[in-house]
Design brief:
CATH topology: Four Helix Bundle (Hemerythrin (Met), subunit A)
Number of domains: 1
Number of strands: 3
Length: about 160
């Protein structure tokens, strides 16, 4: 098994949890923010849904330079939109991970903004931290938003208080 195949197996399981969270996003609450410094539910939902597209950016390119590829913030307006984005980004990420040779995982990758380099690390480390752990972190934030909106929180690693067996 290659590094990428192992990561793909993990992500396949983790995507199921993210999907359950995104399915529960209330379309009429996409502007909800638990705090003035927080993202809206729509922005956070879109971020979770599209985060796995960063797997492709990591594997296929030596860097991501925000000055050359500016991000256009456009929140989602429905859970259906979030699921469509997740399905696309997840399937592309899984497919690419499964066929990436181990040698490519040790090539360096950089996150930049023009002349500023935020970090340079081997692609395997970027995939684990910048892509996957980042995905899990924001999925966790979604669970807090759901709780605050009194929406039953789905389990990720077992049942929640809302899903007792």
């Amino acid at each position: 098994m290659t590094i990428g195949q192992g990561l793909a197996m993990e992500l396949t399981e983790e995507i199921k949890s993210a999907r359950k969270m995104l399915e529960r996003l209330p379309d009429d609450k996409m502007d909800f923010k638990p705090h003035e410094k927080s993202m809206t539910l729509g922005s956070l939902g879109k971020h979770v849904a599209e985060l796995l597209s960063w797997v492709n950016a990591t594997i296929l390119y030596p860097e991501l330079d925000f000055s050359k590829t500016p991000y256009e913030e456009k929140p989602i307006t429905s859970s259906k939109e979030a699921l469509e984005i997740l399905d696309k980004s997840a399937s592309e990420a899984i497919e690419l991970l499964q066929k990436t040779p181990d040698a490519a995982m040790f090539e360096n990758w950089s996150l930049k903004n023009g002349d500023t380099t935020y970090f340079t690390m081997p692609k395997a480390v970027v995939l684990r931290t910048f892509c996957m752990n980042h995905f899990y972190h924001h999925r966790g934030q979604l669970s807090v938003y759901l709780r605050m909106l009194n929406i039953p929180v789905p389990g990720s690693y077992g049942p929640t208080a809302d899903e007792q067996m």
